[in-house]
Design goal:
single chain, mainly alpha, 79% helix, flat
């Protein structure tokens, strides 16, 4: 359970960093640029901790899939980005992949 909490904060940090990346406007704004660097650094640090007890494929699938979904939500809220059927289909396929890996994989995800 502790691993999933660490992974959750790795994901949250990555989403914050990605959102700050958009705000940085090509690293031309200092404060968002610093948030990007610190956020990604912290995210990878926490991901490395989660990898001590979790298979890399499972951890990365969760990290990237959930990060994608939260980043899409941030885009909708912060920049009024829209979803079309192609984007929704892609997100659903990623979620399906995460479920398949976690539910049906023969490798233990401890």
């Amino acid at each position: 359970m502790k691993t999933f909490i660490v992974l959750f904060f790795a994901i949250l940090s990555e989403v914050i960093a990605t959102s700050a990346l958009k705000f940085s406007e090509g690293f031309s704004k200092p404060v968002p640029s610093v948030i990007v660097i610190v956020g990604y650094g912290f995210s990878f640090y926490l991901l490395s901790i989660a990898l001590k007890t979790m298979p890399i494929g499972v951890a990365y699938a969760i990290w990237s899939g959930v990060g994608l979904i939260l980043t899409v939500i941030a885009g909708i809220i912060l920049w009024r980005e829209t979803l079309d059927w192609v984007k929704v289909t892609g997100i659903v396929l990623i979620l399906a992949g995460i479920v398949l890996i976690n539910v049906f994989s023969s490798s233990p995800a401890h």
